[in-house]
Amino acid sequence: MSAIAAVLATASLAGGTLSLKLHYQMVCGQPGRGPVVVHLPTAFRLSKLHVRVRGEARPFTVAGTTVTIGLRKPPEVTCMSIAEGALPVTVTGIRAPKGTYALRGAVNTHAFAATLRVRY
């Protein structure tokens, strides 16, 4: 896949849980090798994070406000289907003040950006 492939990303924050949905070209509906890297604004506070990808807990690391999430190893099955797929990611344990923020990141070689409005 190309390093300049488009990724449509949407984001929301409710009850301390950041929900991201990344839409991009996937092979056989699989997200690829990963990782998913999410650069959060410095105004965000992170504590006792829990990360899920497609509803499954995944390993992750945190460096400042950057969260790097491991993806499940792709299956060994040979497949030639390339189509738009969706990758839901949730990160629990985030606090943010009211405002509008830009989230940036990448999945595999695909960059993404999303606007997040926090209202309490």
Question: Any key phrases for this structure?
Answer:
single chain, 120 residues, mainly beta, five-stranded antiparallel β-sheet
Can you walk me through this structure?
The chain is mainly β. It has strands spanning 8-14, 17-27, 36-39, 45-53, 56-57, 60-63, 66-69, 82-95, 99-107, 110-118. The strands form 2 sheets. The protein has a 5-stranded antiparallel sheet, with no helix packed on it. A hairpin with a 2-residue loop joins strand 9 (99-107) and strand 10 (110-118). The mean pLDDT is 91.
How would a textbook summarize the main sheet? 5 strands, antiparallel
Query: What ranges have pLDDT less than 50 throughout 5 or more consecutive residues?
Result: none
Helix fraction, binned, reads: under 10%
- Overall 3D form: globular
Based on CA atoms alone, the radius of gyration comes out at 14 Å
The assigned structural class equals mainly beta
Classify the beta-strand content into a percent band: over 45%
| Major beta sheet, strand line-up | 1-2-8-4-5
* Secondary-structure element pattern, one letter each: EEEEEEEEEE
Tally of individual helices = 0
Number of strands: 10
